[in-house]
Design a protein that fits this description.
Elements (H helix, E strand, L loop, with lengths): L6 E6 L5 H8 L7 E7 L3 H11 L2 E3 L2 H5 L6 E4 L6 H10 L3 E5 L6 H13 L4 E4 L6 H12 L5 E9 L17 H4 L1 H12 L3 E9 L10 E8 L4 E7 L9 E5 L2 E6 L2 E7 L27 E7 L10 H12 L7 H15 L6
Parallel strand pairs: 1-2, 1-4, 2-3, 4-5, 5-6, 7-10
Antiparallel strand pairs: 7-11, 8-9, 9-10, 11-12, 12-13, 13-14
Helix pairs in contact: 4-5, 5-10, 8-10
């Protein structure tokens, strides 16, 4: 018999992700989701959550996953606890919604795949920036063909800060590669949409006061020839556009709520040109009839998605058996790139 009513959530971890993201994101979705249990090692956080959501609270995750009222185990604990907590939920036969990073390494992520295959529950991956409006809109523009064949994309999330929390410590699973990395690597793989044939990476600690990397630079090349150059930095004093897309007939750049476009007018036929081996004119002129369309448009994907849309996809999958748009194999490929970038460095 199909289950009805709100999906009953037991959340593990009441820190910045659990308390400040997962909880507020469900405001207005009370008809689809309901917190029935929560778990955290901090008694004050437990008391606050119980008062706000009227649910039972636990200190031990093992008690939460075996609570018969819990239907979906929502994992928002610290990064090193993601795999252990996910394994507990899957072993208990529960559906699991797992925050990024799904693991600390590719080898750990493979354990999740094995456990998921044995479990009665399903493992759902929270790569919520798959539904970032800018990313979604840019993919629509690329698919329209106005930029021609896209051959290179630059992805950036840069700033400068002397960060000092647990996200800067290797022993705590810190570092930008496991923080912003899963989001931008997932974007890169979706943009390339082909097997990866080559990769270059460089990791550094620049401004953060911990020992984990705060500067990540990765270049991926797909079998189709498309290159994505991504950089995540807490040590870049000047920021770059979040997206730059180069195509054979145009380009775009985007940050925040705007997309700037420059592309050849498809209504204008280019004159026939051929390369010549003779001496060129002295004035370097290359007469042509290029007609450019230049405009700045607001970020507004036709799909209307935003990062909170992941909850709607999750509900549709659990309640209506709709395919969840983020597959476990896609998330595993992200972790394979993460581990490859760390291999041979002091951050591994």
């Amino acid at each position: 018999m199909a289950k009805t009513g709100p999906i009953r959530i037991g959340i593990i971890g009441l820190g910045r992700a659990g308390w400040s993201m997962h909880g507020p994101e469900l405001a207005g979705r009370e008809d689809k989701f309901k917190f029935v249990a929560a778990c955290d090692i901090d008694p004050a956080r437990r008391a606050q959550f119980a008062e706000k959501y009227g649910c039972v609270v636990y200190r031990d995750a093992r008690d939460l996953v075996t609570d018969p009222a819990v239907e979906l185990v929502d994992i928002a604990s610290r990064s090193p606890e993601h795999v252990p907590h996910a394994l507990l939920g899957l072993k208990a036969g529960k559906d699991v919604f797992l925050e990024k990073p799904i693991a600390l390494s590719y080898a750990q992520a493979l354990k999740l795949k094995s456990a998921s295959a044995r479990s009665k529950g399903h493992l759902f991956i929270r790569h919520n920036r798959r539904f970032e409006p800018g990313f979604a809109h840019i993919r629509e523009i690329i698919a329209s063909g106005i930029l021609g064949r896209v051959f290179e994309i630059k992805l950036r999330r840069n700033g400068y800060g002397r960060r000092d929390d647990w996200q800067t410590l290797i022993r705590c699973g810190g570092g930008q590669l496991l923080n912003w990395g899963p989001h931008l690597i997932d974007h890169a793989l979706r943009f390339i949409d082909a097997p990866i044939v080559s990769m270059w990476s460089d990791l550094r600690t620049v401004a953060a006061v911990g020992d984990a990397e705060d500067h990540v630079h990765i270049v991926l090349k797909g079998k189709n020839g498309c290159v994505v150059d991504l950089e995540i930095s807490g040590g870049a004093a000047l920021e770059e556009p979040e997206y730059i897309v180069l195509g054979t007939k145009g380009a775009l750049q985007s940050s925040g709520d705007e997309i700037k476009l420059r592309y050849l007018d498809p209504a204008n036929t280019l004159m026939l040109r051929r390369a010549k081996s003779c001496s060129p004119d002295l004035n370097f002129n290359m007469p042509d009839n290029l007609v450019w369309i230049e405009k700045t448009i607001p970020v507004a994907p036709s799909s209307g998605v935003n990062m909170n849309s992941i909850w709607d996809f999750l509900h549709a999958s659990i309640r209506n058996s709709k395919p969840f748009p983020i597959s476990l194999d896609q998330a595993l490929e992200v972790m394979r790139i993460v581990s490859a970038a760390k291999r041979g460095t002091r951050y591994g």
